[in-house]
């Protein structure tokens, strides 16, 4: 039986998506989504916080993100969590979570500016 690691994020891009082409010609778009939320501080009062989530969007979804999303764009991202683990050259264990997007809803769209030749 598979376990579930599904996540839904509603926030804004912190920078323009970065496009990469990896071995085999697959397209990958990387971007970070800032999500504002409220939590209680030690005095029990609401405190505004921001969390940052790194997102991977593959193939056509990634291409569309690069074309239509810009810094500040509002998005809703749905996908799975993936944990990458590695050891540093000093032998220290490190890990990082990323969201592998299955759906990206463009809540505010700004068409890519045309390049001036």
Name of the CATH class = Mainly Beta
**What count of helical segments does DSSP give?**
1
CATH superfamily: Nucleic acid-binding proteins
First-to-last CA distance: 55 Å
Fraction of residues in H or I helices: under 10%
**CATH topology name:** OB fold (Dihydrolipoamide Acetyltransferase, E2P)
Subunit structure: Homotetramer.
Pfam families: SSB
Keywords: DNA-binding
GO biological process, one term: DNA replication
Would you give an account of this structure?
This protein has 117 residues and is mostly beta strands. The chain has a single domain (6-106), classed as OB fold (Dihydrolipoamide Acetyltransferase, E2P), CATH 2.40.50.140. 9% of the residues lie in helices and 57% in strands. The chain is built from one helix and six strands. It has one helix at residues 59-68; strands spanning 6-13, 18-21, 27-40, 46-58, 74-87, 93-106. Strands 1-3-4-6-5 form a five-stranded mixed beta barrel. The chain is globular. The termini are far apart.
């Amino acid at each position: 039986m598979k376990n579930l690691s599904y996540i839904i994020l509603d926030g804004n891009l912190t920078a323009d998506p970065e496009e990469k082409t990896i071995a085999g010609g697959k397209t990958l778009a990387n971007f970070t989504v800032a999500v504002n939320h409220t939590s209680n501080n030690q005095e029990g009062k609401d405190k505004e916080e921001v969390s940052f989530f790194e997102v991977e969007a593959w193939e056509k979804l990634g291409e569309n993100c690069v074309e239509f999303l810009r810094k500040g764009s509002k998005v809703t991202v749905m996908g799975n969590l993936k944990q990458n683990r590695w050891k540093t050259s000093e032998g220290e264990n490190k890990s990082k979570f990323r969201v592998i997007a299955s759906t990206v809803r463009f809540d505010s769209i700004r068409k890519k500016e045309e390049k001036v030749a």
